[in-house]
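Recap for those who missed Tuesday's class. We walked through two folding examples back to back. For each one, the amino acid string is listed first and its predicted structure tokens come directly after. Nothing is annotated here on purpose, so try labeling regions yourself before you check the end of the notes.
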Amino acid sequence: MKRFVASGLLCTAVVLGASACSSSDDTTPAEAASSASAALCTSLVQLKSDNAALKALNPATATKDQLQSAYDAVQADWKKVKENSSALKSAEKDAVTTAAENLKKAYEDLPGDTTGKDAITQLQPQIQALDTAATQATTANNCR
């Protein structure tokens, strides 16, 4: 009988211990910060990548559709960065926000009949500013 009780207690302890260890709802602040930082890095790296694609468009051959597609990718990435920006320091957040908003405003201010060549040429300062801000933010957050 003693073996039966001991076995029962041991099994109960194992089950309770395993369920306590497997709970994913109880993250520590360090785990939450690490997760937020990882999500931010992923977003920043994607923003840098898509901004580089926008920057690489050749003004001599790029069409308006190519510009629109590249711009939309950057804006989608910027939205993800904003969602994950709690891990950014204030100065980094301000720099990336300003650069992204300036690119958006410059793009939206382009006349409807602007050619792809003219649009890319006119947007180069804002594209470069966003590249610089995103690079600084990824470096400061040790993103790879």
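Example two. Treat it independently of the first, because the proteins are unrelated.
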Amino acid sequence: MRRVLTVLAALALPISLAGTPAVAASHSTHATAAVKHATAVDQLKHPAALVAQGPDDVCDFTDNRPTLHLGSSGAVVQQAQCYLNQAIGAGLDEDGDFGRITQSATRDFQQCAGIVVDGRIGAQTWSFLSFWANAPDAPFC
């Protein structure tokens, strides 16, 4: 109860000292903020020019991110292999075959990144892989 009263007193003191000009200034500040917000929203809805969203991805086989494991194949595996090569210099052939060598490189990456080491590429590993592979200082480890 004491804390509530202290907070209320702390809030009431500046208001009572400032008088009506503070209220008018506060109202003016809110009105200005509302106008700025409306202007910003309008600019987002109607941009003068389109702006690229983020850096280009270093690997461009696919945008799909399914869970990969031993035996998986296709463009998504090529994407993962490319990321592993960029992120840790794995030296993998980007052949689209998730075999023992890709699984081992995945475990090496997971160990290096400090995430769950299971040799599978799920959501967490995809997230770290794409971030690390596209980082300017790659490869790591």
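Answers for example two:
Confidence is low (pLDDT under 50) at residues 1-8, 50-54.
DSSP finds five helices and no strands in the chain.
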